[in-house]
Specification:
Distance between the termini: 62 Å
Structural class: mainly beta
Shape: globular
Radius of gyration: 30 Å
Strand content: over 45%
Length: 554
């Protein structure tokens, strides 16, 4: 039924412009249709990597590319690999200056493994069983890991009332198959982990309605977005060999719903060449899940009741944000910016308590942030600018009022090039010293070297973020900590790789506790990554604000 319906829909979209074209100027159609074949010979134990994202199986290859035009109507149709796992169809069209539409279907298969084996029967499903020990691998079950993803969507935009416009988008994304996962065999990592083939049966439905007004000097819009995620398997039960072949449970992503209301406004060509921009968002996330009432907790397969204070957890989190900024050029060579950012997060989810195996409480996390400031840069000549600024950030965390100090950051920086315009703004020399635990006085002989490394670190992070105005991150602690981590790694490498190399005062002593760490490979801007400590491999990852979490592994 779905294929017949799609065929009729596509046919009707073709027929509309063609029928009207008979009454007006001709609707001219051009394009190409291709048919071919593919045969693949892979002499490897497992060709999953070769076929990771494309369907290279033997069979028929097809492609179509058609364009149609006249003075009023237009149409583009492109499709390839019909009937295969990586099929793609894209149909666009409309009436000039009146409306436009798009229908598409984009399929993909992600293969991880073709000829694997596992001791579990039912691998890739919600029920996975075996009996340990099972040492004879020849008796294990065959395993194929991979999932199919398909995105089907539609878009319609009305343009007749320009500069006013209205737009509707909707799509459905489905995943089906399996992927690799892991679960702890005991209550401590020291008891080991077991690798599982987790089921992937997700559906996400999205819808968006947007309307607005857009001209050269003014733009504002209002949009509403809704998204619903459904998982056919919210948990997987499996045999735990450490706990006496008892049946353990791993919980997967729960169904949830999200909606957001957003508005934007931009006014250009105001006095002093000012651009005023404002945005607000209001969003809500809801999720309901049945809580686990028991847990496997004993090497003989014992079951412990968790005794939650409720059977179903109904989570709800709302976020409200508002931001406004004004960028101006009052006189030639002077650029200014004032800004205000507000964010409030309300965790309205109920408090959950468990009495066993150990008393635990799920606490909410609500907070309110106010951030405002200004920046001014004056160009002294073609290559030099002088900048000053001030940033105020106040965070009020619910239940932690004693630990919510406001932060005030005056800034003043002389810059000798375009690149130096952003140096010394996000992280100061004193903050670098505090991070490295250096107690040297201002003007110390090691300050210029440390400043150079902070400048280089900031350039790396700013280049990765790809933003035109990096000062928007002046109150972003995550970005600041990412910059501070760069000279930290340099200090660790000095004490590990070249003890005789010259180092700024304090580097050696400040990092003697982490000197045994040796970075392996190229540092990336995203974790996790591996570090080597003697004969051990350690995994570095970020947990909340603990950006130096790996230091605590010693």
């Amino acid at each position: 039924m779905k294929r017949k319906y799609l065929s009729l829909l596509v046919a009707s979209l073709f027929a509309a412009p063609l029928a009207l074209a008979q009454q007006a100027d001709p609707f001219r159609v051009s394009g190409s249709i291709g048919v071919g074949g593919i045969a693949t010979d892979d002499d490897v134990p497992d060709a999953a990597k070769l076929h990771e994202y494309r369907d290279l199986s033997d069979g028929l290859l097809t492609t179509i590319d058609i364009k149609g035009r006249n003075s009023r109507w237009w149409l583009d149709l492109f499709g390839e690999n019909f009937g295969r796992d990586d099929q793609y169809i894209n149909l666009r069209g409309g009436m000039y200056d009146v409306f436009k539409y798009r229908l598409y279907s984009d399929a993909l298969k992600h293969n991880f493994m073709f000829f694997g084996i596992t001791p579990y029967s039912g691998a890739g499903t919600a029920t996975q069983r075996t009996t340990f020990p099972r040492l004879n691998a020849s008796t294990w079950e065959p395993l194929e890991l991979g999932y199919k993803r398909r995105d089907d969507g539609v878009m319609f935009e009305y343009q007749r009332a320009s500069p006013w416009y209205a737009r509707v988008d909707a799509n459905q994304v489905t995943w089906s198959g399996s992927k690799a996962g892991a679960a702890s065999q005991g209550t401590s990592p020291g008891n080991g982990f077991v690798e599982l083939a987790l089921p992937v049966n997700y559906t996400t439905r999205n819808a968006m309605v947007e309307g607005g007004y857009n001209t050269r000097t003014m733009r504002f819009d209002l949009s509403w977005t809704a998204s619903k995620f459904e998982n056919d398997n919210d948990r997987v039960t499996w045999t735990n060999g450490y706990f006496g072949n008892g049946i353990d449970t791993t919980y997967l992503a729960a169904d949830n719903r999200y909606q957001r209301l957003m508005g934007n406004a931009v006014f250009r060509s105001l006095p002093w060449a000012t651009t005023l921009a404002a945005r607000f968002t209001m969003d809500e996330l809801k999720s309901g899940v049945n809580l686990g009432t028991s847990v496997l907790n004993g090497t003989a397969g014992q079951i412990t009741q968790t005794n939650p204070n409720m059977a179903v957890f109904d989570g709800k989190v709302t976020n409200n944000t508002f931001t406004v900024s004004a960028s101006s050029m009052p006189t030639r060579g002077l650029d200014t910016k004032v800004y205000y950012n507000y964010r409030k997060r309300d965790d309205e989810s109920p408090e959950v308590t468990f009495t066993a195996p150990a008393a635990t409480v799920r606490e909410g996390m609500s907070y309110e942030k106010n951030n405002w400031g200004f920046d001014a840069y004056y160009r002294l000549d073609r290559a030099n600018r002088l900048g000053v600024g001030y940033d105020y950030l106040d965070t009020d965390r619910e239940g932690r009022h004693e630990g919510n100090p406001a932060r005030r950051r005056p800034r003043a920086v002389a810059v000798d090039s375009e690149e130096r315009a952003v140096m010394g703004v996000l992280v100061t020399l004193q903050e670098g010293k505090d991070h490295l635990r250096l107690t040297t006085p201002a003007g110390d002989a090691g300050d210029p070297d440390l400043q150079l490394k902070l400048d280089a670190a900031e350039a790396i992070i700013v280049d990765y973020l790809k933003v035109a105005d990096p000062t928007v991150f002046t109150a972003d602690r995550i970005v600041q900590q990412a910059i501070l981590l760069q000279p930290s790694f340099h200090a660790a490498q000095i004490s590990t790789q070249s003890p005789a190399a010259p180092s700024p005062p304090g580097y050696q002593s400040a990092y003697q506790s982490v000197g045994r760490f040796q970075r392996v490979g190229i540092q990336t801007n995203r974790d996790p990554y591996l570090c080597k400590d003697g004969d051990r491999w350690l995994l570095y990852a970020t947990f909340g604000d603990r950006r130096d979490a790996f230091q605590g592994t010693q």
